[in-house]
Write a structure and sequence with these properties.
The protein has 274 residues and is mainly alpha-helical. It contains twelve helices and no strands. α1 crosses α5, α3 runs parallel beside α5 and α8 packs across α11.
């Protein structure tokens, strides 16, 4: 009985440490968004259908990240589900607490607006909570992504693209940059994005990079596919935030390519981010 009690106490302490790291990860990941005016306005103005779509995307993302990166070291689908729900609770609690502290929640904000703000800020905070063990845990193991199959690598690239794109997409500067750039500059930016993605993944030597014994095959299997994922992630995030509403097709393309630049960088260094 004493030994069993000691094991339980040790497990509880380990979980408390994981929970503390999760709150730290949620705050570090979300604080640029919590202090961004556009996110405050989007939390009020976002259409419910788009907010629901964002929730539906984030839930499997959290589950997948729980399996690859881990809220704590335990694995298995039950633990992954529990860790995902725990990350959501941490993310929403962190978002609500700091939005209230910043005076962005109060009696002058109705329930619908409060839910929109908390949800829009809480979901990225939950991603930060999920990644906390890898990013903040001392001596954390490398995790399942070191032996990830091809579809797992693509999942990590999409997650990395979302991490960086989400921090840029709410700002007006994305639209302004797309408006100011000429057609040849948009094409050049797309090419630079692809080249940087390829170099960062296969050539520079960052920790966790993917080695490629066949560069030609790797170009199509990872680089081109990775950029396509960055474009799709950018389109989705811009749609969620309503950044494509009312724009001409040429501006939609320009805005998407501009956001795909940080998204491609996120995909390239996904293993460092997640």
């Amino acid at each position: 009985m004493t030994a069993r009690l000691a094991i339980n106490t040790s497990r509880e302490r380990a979980y408390a440490a994981s929970l503390g790291r999760a709150f730290g990860g949620a705050l570090i990941f979300a604080f640029p968004l919590l202090m961004t005016m556009e996110m405050w306005a989007l939390g009020v103005a976002i259409q419910p259908a788009r907010l629901i779509a964002f929730v539906l995307l984030t839930l499997p993302l959290l589950y997948g990240l729980s399996d690859y990166a881990g809220f704590n070291a335990r694995r298995g689908w039950r633990n992954d589900v529990f860790n995902s729900l725990s990350a959501l609770a941490v993310g929403f609690t962190t978002a609500a607490a700091f939005l209230a502290l910043f005076g962005l929640l109060g009696p002058d904000i109705n329930a619908g607006e409060a839910i929109g703000r908390i949800t829009l800020q809480g979901l990225p905070a939950a991603i930060g909570a999920t990644l906390a063990r890898r990013q903040l845990g001392a001596g954390a193991d490398e995790g399942a992504e070191d032996t990830a199959p091809y579809h797992g690598e693509l999942f990590l690239m999409a997650a990395g693209a979302l991490v960086l794109a989400f921090n840029v997409a709410p700002t007006e500067e994305v639209i302004l940059i797309g408006y100011q750039m000429a057609g040849w500059q948009i094409l050049l930016l797309a090419l630079i994005s692809i080249v940087l993605l390829h170099l960062l993944v296969f050539s520079v030597g960052f920790a966790g990079q993917e080695s490629a014994s066949h560069p030609g095959a790797a170009l199509f299997r990872f680089t081109i596919v990775g950029y396509a994922l960055a474009i799709l992630v950018s389109l989705f995030v811009l749609w969620v935030f309503g950044r494509l509403d009312g724009q001409a097709p040429s501006m939609m393309v320009s805005t998407t390519v501009v956001l795909a630049f940080p998204a491609a960088l996120g995909a390239a260094v996904a293993r460092l981010l997640v």
